[in-house]
Structure formats: C-alpha cells, structure tokens
Design a protein that fits this description.
disordered C terminus, globular, 283 residues, 6 helices, single chain, alpha/beta, 6-stranded mixed beta sheet, 8-stranded mixed beta sheet, Purple Acid Phosphatase, chain A, domain 2
Length: 283
C-alpha cells in the first residue's frame, strides 16, 4: 500500500497559519495526502506554540506537530505537550523535559505513521546526543507505528546529512527543519530512506526567515535588540511530499512542494500571537 505523507516546513506566525488554513485541505485532496506533519515551533508570534494555535492547526488539517528549540517559549503549551499524543518535542532534550518524544497517527487507509523530533547540537543550545536518542527510541516507536519519519531540527547541514545516513534503511524519511531555507538535495538514500536537508518555511518569504528585514538588519548592524515583527509579504507553504510503501517501509518518491498564498496578509500578529518579542542577532 502506498502512503502519501506531506511534511510542512516551519510555520511562522499568523501569515504561516493563514496560508495553512486556506490552502492545506485543498492540497490534501488534490495530492491524495494520507498524513500531514507540520513543524510549528514558530507558529505563535514567530516563536513558540500556544494551545489555541495548536487546536487551530489541527482544525486546518494538520495531523501531527513537531517542535524544536522554541518548544517551551510559550509556557502554556506544556500541559498540551504532556497530554496530547500527536505533538512531539525533541527527543534528545533532557529526559526530565515536558512532552513526548514521538507522535503517532493512524491513517484512514489503516497503517500508522509515527514522527520523532530531534534537535541538533552544532551551533545550537546544549542537548543530548541525537544519535543515541534515536537509537533508544526506535525500538519503542516501531511497536506503535508502521511508518516512521524523523524531523531533525538542526542548523548544520553536515549534522543533518550524517543523520540521514545513520538512519538509512531504519526509518522511511529524514527531513530537516530550523533554517527556514529549503534545500535542493531531496533524494532516496541507498537503503530506501527519503532524505532532504531542510524543507523550508511556511510564512512570509519577503523577509529574513519570516521576520521583517528592516528590523533584523538594524539588529545585525548595531548589535542592539529590536522587535523582530512578523513579515507579511510573499507568503508561501514550503514542504515535501513523500510516497512510502507501507509493506516495505521504503520511500518511493520525495518531491519538494511550494505553494503561494491566495491573498496578501497585512496583519503582523493577532490575539493568539501576543506582541513581538525582542531578539538580538538571534532568530
């Protein structure tokens, strides 16, 4: 049986959420998608996730959500992380960190899809070894899911590529998130695992990683903190469509997806976002 799995790159703020609300369900129907996975760690005002936005994304058609280094930016999401089985924080956070290390979803065709979130260590905040973490988790999630994917939320391309080879033939797909820039290296690895270094960003592409270019430039040039407001121009969905054989668990195809918004989004944030936070040379 063939499963079509759509993986959506980092959703950034209201523009990212709005295009998911408008375009996801028609895309799912058009492409016969069986499971939708989205990285949503930037969905609330560009940093973090709230319970309200988590529920909205599920209504829009997302089946499972992954997070990254901003997993706990909005503290009110912690209860959701501890109770919901369709949202995963990075598995190589401390074993005492709130939340689940994997999420599962049973497709309408029958097979169950599992997603594991990992976070990188190069140019990132301290975390446990992602290779040891996934080796420990795989036997557990293999008892729950027929098809397994891994979202590696990391900065360094070398670290992501290495993880792809580490998991080749052991999971069906390894895709990268975090940099918000899609890469052109999608492929099927020798043992049947689909791989791409980064699937990109769902949000305003006339921006610096989804934030207003002028504010980011000011911060870079002056080394002073400025509010990095959410940009609104040229909104797109970035992601991949992966076709996986549920019997062999091997990927048969991986395709980059880019979809434009139907209308321009002019608001910088809404009531679910709160006010823009201040950052200094850090997105």
């Amino acid at each position: 049986m063939k499963l079509n799995i759509l993986c959506i790159g980092d959703i950034v703020g209201r523009p990212g959420r709005r295009i998911v609300a408008e375009r996801l369900k028609p895309l799912v129907r058009e492409m016969g998608v069986d499971c939708v996975i989205a990285n949503a760690e930037n969905a609330a005002g560009g940093s973090g996730l709230t319970p309200q936005i988590y529920n909205k994304l599920l209504r829009y058609g997302v089946h499972m959500i992954t997070l990254g280094d901003h997993a706990y930016r909005k503290r009110d999401i912690i209860k959701t992380l501890e109770t919901a089985d369709n949202i995963a924080r990075p598995a190589n956070f401390s074993e005492h960190a709130a939340g689940r290390t994997s999420a599962v979803y049973q497709t309408s065709k029958g097979p169950t899809v599992g997603i594991v979130s990992l976070i990188g260590r190069l140019f990132m905040k301290p975390a446990d070894c992602p290779y040891n973490a996934i080796d420990k988790i795989l036997p557990q999630i293999q008892q729950k899911a027929d098809i397994i994917l891994v979202d590696f939320h990391a900065e360094a391309t070398s670290e992501k590529v290495a993880m792809g080879y580490h998991l080749d033939g052991r999971v069906s797909c390894v895709f990268g998130t975090h940099t918000h820039i899609p890469t052109a290296d999608e492929k099927i690895l020798p043992k049947g695992t689909a791989y791409i270094t980064d699937i990109g960003m769902t949000g305003a592409h006339d921006s610096v990683l989804g934030r207003g270019a002028e504010s980011v430039l000011k911060s870079f040039r002056t080394h002073m903190p400025f509010p990095f407001e959410i940009a609104t121009g040229d909104v797109k969905i970035d992601g991949i469509l992966v076709v996986i054989d549920s019997n062999t668990k091997k990927a048969e195809r991986i395709e980059r997806i880019r979809l434009d918004a139907e209308a321009e989004d002019t608001a910088t944030y809404d009531s679910d976002d709160g006010k823009p936070e201040y950052y200094s040379n850090s997105l």
